[in-house]
Amino acid sequence: MARSEITEAAGGTPSGPNGYISNKGDYLKRLRRLEGQARGIQGMVAEEKYCIDILTQISAMTSALQSVALSLLGDHLNHCVLEAASAGGPEANLKIQEASQAIARLVRS
User: Which of 55, 69, 72, 99 lies 20 to 30 Å from 105, alpha-carbon distance?
Assistant: First the structure.
């Protein structure tokens, strides 16, 4: 169930800033770096570089992307989920369910 579906099920809309807002600049910088890595890998393929070198760069990019995902998850847990849990009610259960589903998606990837 997507965030919008969970929010609709609770009869509301997300309120307040996202948990990552205080680290937004850092996230944008990291994502731009990942974008550059992707372009670099594309260039390696275009230039017909050695397979293992390309795979090494893909592995590095995957690790960096997972790091961003884990940081975002931590911010979500420490902000959105904690705030909802403190308030209690059905929104708290939905936020916990949402976080559990996000963790499951990260573990499978």
Answer: 55
Q: Tell which residue, 107, 78, 71, has the closest CA to residue 95.
A: 78
pLDDT in tens, the chain (109 residues): 454 444 444 444 455 678 888 899 999 999 999 999 999 999 999 999 999 999 999 999 999 999 999 999 999 999 999 999 999 999 999 999 999 999 999 999 8
CA distance linking residue 77 with residue 82, whole number of Å: 6
Structure tokens at 20: 């990552």
Contact 19, 75 (CB under 8 A): yes
**CA 105, CA 57: separation in Å to the nearest integer?**
23
**pTM exceeds 0.85 for this model:** no
Chain position carrying tokens 């960096």: 64
Q: What is the DSSP secondary structure assignment for residue 48, as one 8-state letter?
A: T
